[in-house]
Design goal:
about 200 residues; globular; mainly beta; homotrimer; 6-stranded parallel β-sheet; about 0% helix; UDP N-Acetylglucosamine Acyltransferase, domain 1; 2 domains
Chain lengths: ~200, ~200, ~200
């Protein structure tokens, strides 16, 4: 099926809840929820039990695996991969909004998080509010990200630390004299103290 | 809507399952399940995909975020915050109940866990059965709690270790000569070897 | 209820999705999904919000707790325990299948994972693709398993490291002069550099 302009219609599983905006070709699976005011781009795949809150923004071509939890304040770039059970957060010092005697302004607690284009977050990783995960970075499964992740970086552990660099295709790069050629796809990179740059 | 005594009625999303007891003003969202014999207090918010098992006890004013899993043996105090994807456990050495040749009594495996009033557990944290998380403590996102957490303590990591103290409002406290004044809300505390006490 | 051969019928909660094969006596709870082409054995218990993908294989007598995510490429032996919120993975360097300019063959990314008979995986643990978790091993809650786990081993942490040995019944073993007797069930074991063997 497609619309009048020839764009493929989105698919929404009968057991999904979609109240927000989803782009052409995007599929949303059972028990997932895209809230009103959430924005999901084209050609995305939103897995079962995933949750995308009002105010969250997701680009085009993004894979959101099952059970991932994406809140207001989170922005995800094109082509990113959000693994199964990934937990975002948007508050660095959460308290119950119903806790007697404690009042916290929205400005105080709502902290934005960004995942840049092409980045991947492995299954079960936890993203502390306020970090930026750079383009094509790879967050290892189960990592707890507490600081910014540079583009093309591989990070692992709790707290997550850099364990190398990866290619745009995901393969780990072997760096030699400030250069690297991907063993899988032959892309080449220059690595400096400022980070990784693909060769033109 | 309210009952004859003027208490606001609870709200149950049409796609939630609520068989247990929930208090006035409590809301339960889609795909969440409060089992028969679970007890949830007043003015709570139970997020989507959350699960509250028979025998679990949750106080008043508690926030349970999406996908949190709360079992028999777990008791949660008033005003606590249970973050998204938080996993409780109630058995320190689990085996399948259907594992041939292994019989384990309920007394042996069912270990109680307590979260005291006003405590917060960050997203994706895992709580090993048998611990007590003290009042107003803050468990960092992705932490794995294996031991008791004192009141007002901030803990992080796997296993979780103490990384400071927090105010009742959630702000980290700067301790000086055994005293601390919260930079956010001006509450004052005395810190001794026994822990933190709010000044009267 | 039972079939003509006297086998107890499986139970499927009205809010579960079961398209795959499930054995006699197996129960599947609300908001869980067993996909077409997934294979689940007899007498299993599949908790709420669990997800079992096409191609996953689960033995007999397995407990899959709530929210566990089990993918193609994962094989789980008889009598295993998969804790709440456990996240398996099947790709060591995931990228969105919709990421522009990146093509990855199925042979490259799909990595098999095995959980042997009687093993237990604690709540919230994350299993990196490609590992083998040995028979009766015990993965601690919140562990991130990045390497093979020997039979009867207890592992914890991120990354998971060996912290002892456990009995078939789950109890931690006190090893003395290369031998151990379980304090709970009196089973006896010989421990060598090659690992643990039950005494005949």
């Amino acid at each position: 099926m497609s619309d009048a302009a020839g764009n493929p219609a989105p698919f929404v599983h009968p057991l999904a809840l979609v109240e927000g905006e989803i782009g052409a070709g995007t599929r949303v699976w059972a028990f997932a929820h895209v809230m009103r005011g959430a924005c999901v781009g084209r050609d995305c795949n939103i897995g079962e039990h995933a949750f995308i809150e009002t105010g969250a923004r997701i680009g085009d071509g993004v894979t959101v695996k099952n059970g991932a939890l994406i809140w207001e304040g989170v922005t995800i770039g094109d082509g990113a991969f959000i693994g199964p059970g990934v937990v975002f957060t948007n508050d660095r010092a959460p308290r119950s909004a119903r806790l007697a005697g404690v009042a916290r302004s929205r400005e105080r607690w709502l902290v934005p998080t960004v995942v840049e284009d092409g980045a991947s977050i492995g299954g079960g990783a936890v993203i502390v509010a306020g970090v930026r995960i750079g383009a094509y970075a790879l967050v290892g499964a189960g990592a707890v990200v507490t600081r910014d992740v540079p583009p093309y970086a591989l990070v692992r552990g709790n707290p997550a630390r850099r364990a190398g660099w990866v290619c745009r295709c995901g393969e780990k790069l072997a760096v030699c004299s400030g250069r690297a050629t991907c063993a899988a796809c032959s892309a080449t990179y220059i690595i400096t103290e400022e980070g990784v740059q693909p060769c033109p």
